[in-house]
Protein backbone atom coordinates (compact mmCIF):
# COMPACT_ATOMS: atom_id res chain seq x y z
CA UNK A 1 0.00 0.00 0.00
CA UNK A 2 1.19 3.45 -0.92
CA UNK A 3 2.32 5.81 1.86
CA UNK A 4 -0.38 8.29 2.91
CA UNK A 5 1.94 11.25 2.30
CA UNK A 6 2.43 10.19 -1.31
CA UNK A 7 -1.30 9.51 -1.80
CA UNK A 8 -2.23 12.96 -0.47
CA UNK A 9 0.45 14.76 -2.48
CA UNK A 10 -0.58 13.01 -5.69
CA UNK A 11 -4.32 13.52 -5.08
CA UNK A 12 -3.88 17.25 -4.39
CA UNK A 13 -1.59 17.74 -7.37
CA UNK A 14 -4.11 15.98 -9.65
CA UNK A 15 -7.01 18.02 -8.25
CA UNK A 16 -5.21 21.35 -8.52
CA UNK A 17 -3.07 20.67 -11.59
CA UNK A 18 -0.20 22.16 -9.62
CA UNK A 19 2.70 21.09 -7.50
CA UNK A 20 2.28 21.78 -3.78
CA UNK A 21 4.72 21.84 -0.91
CA UNK A 22 3.34 19.89 2.04
CA UNK A 23 5.42 20.05 5.20
CA UNK A 24 5.02 16.56 6.72
CA UNK A 25 6.33 15.92 10.25
CA UNK A 26 6.14 13.16 12.84
CA UNK A 27 6.51 13.75 16.55
CA UNK A 28 8.36 11.51 19.03
CA UNK A 29 5.22 9.32 19.37
CA UNK A 30 4.89 8.85 15.64
CA UNK A 31 1.93 11.20 15.23
CA UNK A 32 2.08 12.58 11.71
CA UNK A 33 0.92 16.03 10.62
CA UNK A 34 1.10 17.95 7.39
CA UNK A 35 0.76 21.66 6.61
CA UNK A 36 0.15 23.13 3.21
CA UNK A 37 -0.56 26.69 2.11
CA UNK A 38 -2.82 26.89 -0.92
CA UNK A 39 -1.74 29.76 -3.19
CA UNK A 40 -5.36 30.69 -4.00
CA UNK A 41 -8.61 30.34 -2.07
CA UNK A 42 -10.24 29.02 -5.28
CA UNK A 43 -8.13 25.87 -4.81
CA UNK A 44 -9.83 25.03 -1.52
CA UNK A 45 -12.88 23.24 -2.92
CA UNK A 46 -11.00 20.95 -5.36
CA UNK A 47 -8.44 20.19 -2.62
CA UNK A 48 -11.24 19.32 -0.17
CA UNK A 49 -12.88 17.11 -2.80
CA UNK A 50 -9.60 15.25 -3.27
CA UNK A 51 -9.24 14.72 0.48
CA UNK A 52 -12.86 13.55 0.72
CA UNK A 53 -12.19 10.96 -2.01
CA UNK A 54 -9.27 9.69 0.09
CA UNK A 55 -11.68 9.12 2.99
CA UNK A 56 -10.63 12.25 4.85
CA UNK A 57 -12.95 14.14 7.15
CA UNK A 58 -12.98 17.77 8.16
CA UNK A 59 -12.03 18.05 11.84
CA UNK A 60 -12.49 21.80 12.27
CA UNK A 61 -11.79 25.15 10.68
CA UNK A 62 -10.04 28.11 12.27
CA UNK A 63 -10.19 31.72 11.07
CA UNK A 64 -7.75 34.09 12.65
CA UNK A 65 -6.27 37.51 12.31
CA UNK A 66 -2.82 37.75 13.82
CA UNK A 67 -1.38 41.23 14.31
CA UNK A 68 1.27 40.65 11.66
CA UNK A 69 -1.46 39.74 9.14
CA UNK A 70 -3.57 42.79 10.00
CA UNK A 71 -0.63 45.04 9.10
CA UNK A 72 -0.42 43.23 5.75
CA UNK A 73 -4.17 43.58 5.12
CA UNK A 74 -4.94 39.89 5.19
CA UNK A 75 -6.19 37.09 7.41
CA UNK A 76 -5.78 33.34 7.35
CA UNK A 77 -8.11 30.36 7.60
CA UNK A 78 -6.84 26.89 8.50
CA UNK A 79 -8.86 23.83 7.46
CA UNK A 80 -7.86 20.79 9.52
CA UNK A 81 -8.55 17.38 7.94
CA UNK A 82 -8.17 13.95 9.50
CA UNK A 83 -6.88 11.21 7.22
CA UNK A 84 -6.94 7.99 9.18
CA UNK A 85 -5.32 9.57 12.24
CA UNK A 86 -3.04 11.91 10.33
CA UNK A 87 -3.89 15.61 10.42
CA UNK A 88 -3.45 17.66 7.28
CA UNK A 89 -4.00 21.41 7.59
CA UNK A 90 -4.65 23.47 4.49
CA UNK A 91 -4.32 27.23 4.95
CA UNK A 92 -5.50 30.02 2.71
CA UNK A 93 -4.90 33.76 2.82
CA UNK A 94 -7.81 36.14 2.44
CA UNK A 95 -7.98 39.90 2.15
CA UNK A 96 -9.49 41.73 5.13
CA UNK A 97 -12.11 43.33 2.90
CA UNK A 98 -14.56 41.41 0.69
CA UNK A 99 -13.08 38.01 1.51
CA UNK A 100 -14.76 35.00 -0.08
CA UNK A 101 -14.38 31.25 0.35
CA UNK A 102 -16.35 28.37 -1.16
CA UNK A 103 -18.61 26.44 1.18
CA UNK A 104 -17.40 22.94 2.06
CA UNK A 105 -20.81 21.87 3.40
CA UNK A 106 -21.66 19.81 0.28
CA UNK A 107 -18.63 17.64 1.12
CA UNK A 108 -18.47 17.97 4.91
CA UNK A 109 -21.72 18.83 6.71
CA UNK A 110 -19.80 19.76 9.84
CA UNK A 111 -18.40 22.82 8.01
CA UNK A 112 -21.81 24.44 8.52
CA UNK A 113 -21.27 26.14 11.87
CA UNK A 114 -17.67 27.14 11.17
CA UNK A 115 -18.70 28.80 7.93
CA UNK A 116 -21.67 30.57 9.53
CA UNK A 117 -19.31 31.79 12.23
CA UNK A 118 -16.99 33.24 9.54
CA UNK A 119 -19.86 35.15 7.98
CA UNK A 120 -21.12 36.47 11.30
CA UNK A 121 -17.98 37.28 13.22
CA UNK A 122 -15.45 38.02 10.47
CA UNK A 123 -17.64 39.17 7.53
CA UNK A 124 -16.22 36.49 5.23
CA UNK A 125 -18.61 35.62 2.41
CA UNK A 126 -19.07 31.85 2.12
CA UNK A 127 -20.14 31.13 -1.45
CA UNK A 128 -22.81 28.46 -1.80
CA UNK A 129 -23.57 28.01 1.89
CA UNK A 130 -27.01 26.35 2.18
CA UNK A 131 -28.04 28.11 5.41
CA UNK A 132 -26.31 31.47 5.92
CA UNK A 133 -28.37 32.48 8.99
CA UNK A 134 -26.48 33.85 11.97
CA UNK A 135 -25.54 31.52 14.78
CA UNK A 136 -25.02 33.77 17.81
CA UNK A 137 -25.66 37.44 17.26
CA UNK A 138 -28.79 39.41 16.50
CA UNK A 139 -29.16 40.58 12.87
CA UNK A 140 -29.02 44.21 14.06
CA UNK A 141 -25.36 43.85 15.05
CA UNK A 142 -22.93 44.72 12.27
CA UNK A 143 -20.88 41.89 10.76
CA UNK A 144 -17.18 41.39 11.56
CA UNK A 145 -17.76 42.08 15.23
CA UNK A 146 -14.73 40.01 16.26
CA UNK A 147 -12.35 42.04 14.19
CA UNK A 148 -13.60 45.36 15.59
CA UNK A 149 -14.38 44.63 19.23
CA UNK A 150 -12.00 42.02 20.59
CA UNK A 151 -8.24 42.49 20.68
CA UNK A 152 -6.41 39.34 19.70
CA UNK A 153 -4.66 39.14 23.09
CA UNK A 154 -8.07 39.13 24.82
CA UNK A 155 -9.36 36.43 22.54
CA UNK A 156 -6.41 34.16 23.14
CA UNK A 157 -6.62 34.42 26.92
CA UNK A 158 -10.13 32.96 26.88
CA UNK A 159 -11.98 36.17 27.81
CA UNK A 160 -13.44 36.74 24.33
CA UNK A 161 -17.10 36.05 25.10
CA UNK A 162 -17.30 38.41 28.06
CA UNK A 163 -15.37 41.15 26.25
CA UNK A 164 -17.59 40.82 23.19
CA UNK A 165 -20.76 40.94 25.27
CA UNK A 166 -19.61 44.03 27.16
CA UNK A 167 -18.61 45.79 23.93
CA UNK A 168 -21.96 44.99 22.29
CA UNK A 169 -23.89 46.20 25.33
CA UNK A 170 -21.81 49.39 25.53
CA UNK A 171 -22.52 50.14 21.88
CA UNK A 172 -26.23 49.50 22.34
CA UNK A 173 -26.30 51.88 25.32
CA UNK A 174 -27.30 49.17 27.77
CA UNK A 175 -25.47 48.53 30.98
CA UNK A 176 -23.96 45.15 31.59
CA UNK A 177 -25.86 42.96 33.99
CA UNK A 178 -24.19 42.05 37.22
Question: Could you characterize what this model shows?
Answer:
With 178 residues, this protein is of the alpha/beta class. Helix content is 36%, strand content 25%. The protein has seven helices and seven strands, in the order αββαβαβββαβααα. The strands form two sheets. It has a five-stranded mixed β-sheet. A two-stranded parallel sheet has the order 6-7. Helix 4 links the parallel strand 6 and strand 7 (125-127). Helix 1 crosses helix 2 (44-53). The longest helix has 13 residues, at 4-16. This is Hydrogenase subunit CooU. InterPro entries: NADH_quin_OxRdtase_su_C/D-like, NADH_UbQ_OxRdtase_30kDa_su. Residues 41-142 form the NADH:ubiquinone oxidoreductase 30kDa subunit domain.
Low-confidence stretches: none
Beta strands, count: 7
Q: What is the topology, as strand order, of the major beta sheet?
A: 1-2-5-4-3
Helix content: 25-40%
Explain the layout of strands and helices:
Elements: H1 4-16, E1 23-26, E2 32-37, H2 44-53, E3 57-64, H3 67-72, E4 74-83, E5 86-95, E6 100-102, H4 111-122, E7 125-127, H5 145-149, H6 152-156, H7 160-172
Parallel strand pairs: 2-5, 6-7
Antiparallel strand pairs: 1-2, 3-4, 4-5
Give a short summary of the structure.
This is Hydrogenase subunit CooU. The chain is α/β, with parallel strands linked by helices and 178 residues long. The chain has helices at residues 4-16, 44-53, 67-72, 111-122, 145-149, 152-156, 160-172; strands at residues 23-26, 32-37, 57-64, 74-83, 86-95, 100-102, 125-127.
Amino acid sequence: MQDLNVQVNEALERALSASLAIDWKSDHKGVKTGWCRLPESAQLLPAAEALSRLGGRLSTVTAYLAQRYRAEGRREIAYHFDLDGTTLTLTIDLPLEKAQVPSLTPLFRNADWNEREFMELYDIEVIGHPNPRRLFLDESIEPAVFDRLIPYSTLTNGAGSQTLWEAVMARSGKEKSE
